[in-house]
Backbone:
């Protein structure tokens, strides 16, 4: 099965009931598959007039309580930024899949990249935090997309599935699990204020049409949901909570593979370049070379770095100019070697192996 | 063992489908692992198209073809773009009705398009003839597996024609190998 | 229930300037909703950004106050995901026709079952009086200090041409008619568009020779021309002066709607 189809199937298995979007290479197969399948499962597919409208419709659908998603690539992702901030501010669960292609601008529509990793974290204005997953196989396109809905519901935020053209378009074996675990949003208890959160920092969800009479606004709001845009303390408390509900849970959100934790040289990768690293480790069979493969890139859990107690060097191959390498540098005093790659092709395993030899 | 196969031809010949069918045969019916990729973009709409499949007994790690073990080339342009850089140890199957160059490696000539037209009456099944020949010549997947994968993948009503094409491919390859 | 029971009593005072026409339109809309017998549990109000778009914040129903221009797109998602909800959009002329123009015409084309009430004050009120796509040619705003050089949009003409099932225009002077028009819009399956011209004393009136609130309301009264009369004048070959406001029901038809439970 193709990666993009697996993504759509994972969403359907997770109970996604709404897809709103706008066609763009190399993500279109996801929309096409949803258009085929959703109406048959009682769901709704709608092709909107642009990506701004696509994410808007998804947010609207989510407020009816439905699990909702969209899928896009670079140019469409850029158009979505304002409304993604709206989803953050209004604590709207939704899943946004970005099958990354080469940018800036129209760039390389049919070639892979990981150039939007910082955009998904920081692209909308203001301070906030989100979750971004990075699948490295067709299987993970299914599994991580399904999991994205759980995380979106649990934290009431947009969750990004940051794949790329290689993973989206390749075909490999998919084992469809018998069941997909569902961790749905918790409804607001009647009588509680809609934007007052308990210890989890995530308030219960007051879906439309259930008698809550909730007002939802992108303006800074108090715990009743009412606009309160000039109070410094209300704003500070709200934004701090929106950031902390994700950041304080980063070690539990984290998901990764750790290979050779005693290694001195450690590759750190996410998404498609992980496949090149895995090939290198398979070929060289050295236990002084390790691998940290991130399935969750944001929030970045720096504690994962200390799993490699003997690490002297981190090598970070990415299909960009070092976006996550920079984040890693922020958290470690070890040597960080970014291996940027532009142009749309994957790092060649032999090039990575040569880099190891040069280090020795 | 990892085997990399690259297919090339022109848009409309079913180059991508051929790779998908081989991958499917390996995964679904031979209990192996496979990854199929292709070049997207303008190439897919006319011009030289390329697709690839990697088959392995273990999970396929690196998903892209780096130095193919087997080539299946169905157009001259495809040969020039994707087939000239062969390594000596590779095997290349060419559709000898359309490709006039020959590689430096071992080459198996299959007049697939000619046979498709003359003995089956349909150009369109040339890719299936090439698939039959590929399986008979290299054994990358079993004959039973390729047959089932072809039946899964072709439009309803054309099963018989496609099985005939596959068997034609077996025959043509056997003739070259033993004849 | 009367319309004033739809207000959130814990949200007063509101942000509107004294004499602003938006309040009248909110009252008319809520009266129409109330006449329909709809409950607050089944009714959702959606809006974009602008003075007009603050309306849902004062109403005791579920409401989504979204981003500038995008209200209709958000509302489309709500209605498609749950056709049992009754979805009403409040918008301004800039929100609807400038930044949100594309969503507006596509929603008309889809004939999605929404009722959109546009408070057209012919200006950007919230941001302090810049020109909008409905600022009349020659009118003054902070971005058209020499008089607007551009032609204004006919919002109702746009909606009718793009396929809306119901289209009507009135003003804040025409309270009874406006209630009836909104009510007809609520009753009509498919896209209903009601344009209400409103006075904005703060940002439009002050700059355009309507010194008192009543001056602009008087103008609406004296310059309103019923569509039937306008049609007759056109038939007779008479020219309709540019400053006349054609009011009434401007389209009513029965194209198949989207977002209605079958
Ligand atoms: C993307 C974006 N651009 C600009 C603005 C600033 N802005 C807020 S309201 C508004 C215009 C409001 O005019 P209108 O829609 O006519 O509503 P009114 O305030 O007159 O009721 C603008 C430009 C914004 N909020 N978002
Ligand atoms: S600025 Fe104009 S539209 Fe806004 S509240 Fe004041 S009068 Fe009303």
Residues:
């Amino acid at each position: 099965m193709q990666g993009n189809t697996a993504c759509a199937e994972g969403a359907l298995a997770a109970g996604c009931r709404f897809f709103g979007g706008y066609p763009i290479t190399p993500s279109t197969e996801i929309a096409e598959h949803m258009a085929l399948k959703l109406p048959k499962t009682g769901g709704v597919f709608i092709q909107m007039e642009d990506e701004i409208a696509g994410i808007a419709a998804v947010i609207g659908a989510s407020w009816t309580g439905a699990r909702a998603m969209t899928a896009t690539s670079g140019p469409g992702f850029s158009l979505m930024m304002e409304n993604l901030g709206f989803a953050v501010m209004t604590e709207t669960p939704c899943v946004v899949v970005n099958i990354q292609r080469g940018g800036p601008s129209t760039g390389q529509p049919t070639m892979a990249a990981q150039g939007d990793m910082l955009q998904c974290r920081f692209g909308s204005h203001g301070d906030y935090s989100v979750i971004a997953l990075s699948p490295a196989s067709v299987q993970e396109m299914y599994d991580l997309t399904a999991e994205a809905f759980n995380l979106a519901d649990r934290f009431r935020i947009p969750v990004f599935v940051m794949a790329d053209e290689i993973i989206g378009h390749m075909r490999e074996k998919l084992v469809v699990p018998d069941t997909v675990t569902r961790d749905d949003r918790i409804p607001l208890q009647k009588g509680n204020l809609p934007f007052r959160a308990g210890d989890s920092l995530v308030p219960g969800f007051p879906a439309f049409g259930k008698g809550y009479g909730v007002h939802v606004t992108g303006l800074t709001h108090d715990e009743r949901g009412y606009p309160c845009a000039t109070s410094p303390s209300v704003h500070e408390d709200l934004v701090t909570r929106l950031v902390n509900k994700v950041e304080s849970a980063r070690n539990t959100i984290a998901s990764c593979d750790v290979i050779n934790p005693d290694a001195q040289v450690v590759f750190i990768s996410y998404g498609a370049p992980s496949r090149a690293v895995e090939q290198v480790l398979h070929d060289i069979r050295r236990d002084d070379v390790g691998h940290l493969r991130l399935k969750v890139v944001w929030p970045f859990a720096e504690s994962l770095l200390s799993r490699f107690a003997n690490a002297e060097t981190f090598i970070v191959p990415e299909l960009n100019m070092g976006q996550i390498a920079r984040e890693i540098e922020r958290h470690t005093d070890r040597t960080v070697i970014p291996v940027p790659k532009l142009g749309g092709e994957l790092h060649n395993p032999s090039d990575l192996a040569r880099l190891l030899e040069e280090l020795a | 063992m990892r085997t990399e196969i690259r297919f090339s031809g022109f848009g409309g010949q079913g180059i991508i489908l051929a790779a998908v069918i081989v991958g499917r045969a390996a995964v679904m019916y031979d209990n192996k692992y496979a990854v199929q990729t292709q070049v997207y973009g303008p190439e897919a709409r006319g011009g030289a198209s390329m697709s690839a499949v990697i088959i392995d007994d273990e999970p396929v790690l690196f998903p892209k073809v780096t130095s193919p073990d087997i080539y299946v080339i169905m157009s001259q342009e495809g040969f020039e773009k994707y087939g000239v850089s062969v390594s000596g140890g590779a095997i290349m199957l060419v559709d000898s009705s359309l490709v006039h160059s020959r590689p430096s490696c071992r080459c198996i000539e299959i007049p697939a398009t000619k046979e498709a037209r003359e003995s089956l009456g349909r150009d369109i099944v040339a890719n299936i003839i090439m698939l039959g020949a590929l399986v008979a010549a290299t054994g990358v997947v079993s004959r039973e597996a390729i047959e089932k994968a072809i039946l899964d993948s072709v439009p309803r009503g054309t099963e018989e024609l496609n099985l005939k094409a596959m068997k034609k491919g077996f025959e043509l390859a056997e003739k070259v190998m033993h004849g | 229930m009367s319309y004033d029971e739809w207000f959130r009593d814990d949200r007063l005072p509101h942000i509107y300037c004294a004499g602003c026409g938006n309040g009248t339109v909110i009252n008319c809309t809520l009266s129409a909703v109330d006449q329909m017998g709809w409950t607050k549990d089944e009714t959702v109000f959606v809006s974009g950004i602008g003075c007009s778009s603050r309306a849902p914040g004062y109403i005791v129903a579920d409401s989504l106050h979204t981003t500038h221009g995008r209200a209709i797109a958000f509302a489309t998602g709500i209605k498609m995901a749950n056709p049992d909800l009754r979805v009403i959009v409040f918008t301004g002329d800039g929100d609807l026709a400038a930044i949100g123009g594309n969503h507006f015409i596509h929603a008309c084309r889809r004939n999605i079952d929404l009722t959109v009430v546009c408070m057209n004050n012919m200006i950007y009120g919230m941001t302090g009086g810049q020109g909008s796509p409905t600022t009349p040619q020659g009118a003054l705003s902070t971005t058209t200090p020499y008089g607007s050089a551009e032609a204004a949009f006919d919002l109702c003409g746009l909606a009718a041409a793009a396929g809306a099932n119901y289209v009507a225009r009135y003003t804040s002077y025409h309270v009874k008619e406006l209630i009836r028009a909104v009510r007809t819009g609520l009753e009509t399956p498919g896209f209903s568009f009601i344009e209400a011209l409103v006075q904005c004393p703060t940002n439009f009136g002050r700059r355009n020779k309507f010194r008192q609130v009543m001056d602009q309301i008087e103008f609406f009264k004296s310059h309103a021309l019923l569509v039937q009369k306008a049609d007759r004048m056109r038939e007779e070959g008479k020219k309709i002066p540019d400053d006349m406001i054609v009011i009434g029901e401007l389209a009513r038809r029965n194209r198949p709607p989207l977002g209605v439970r079958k």
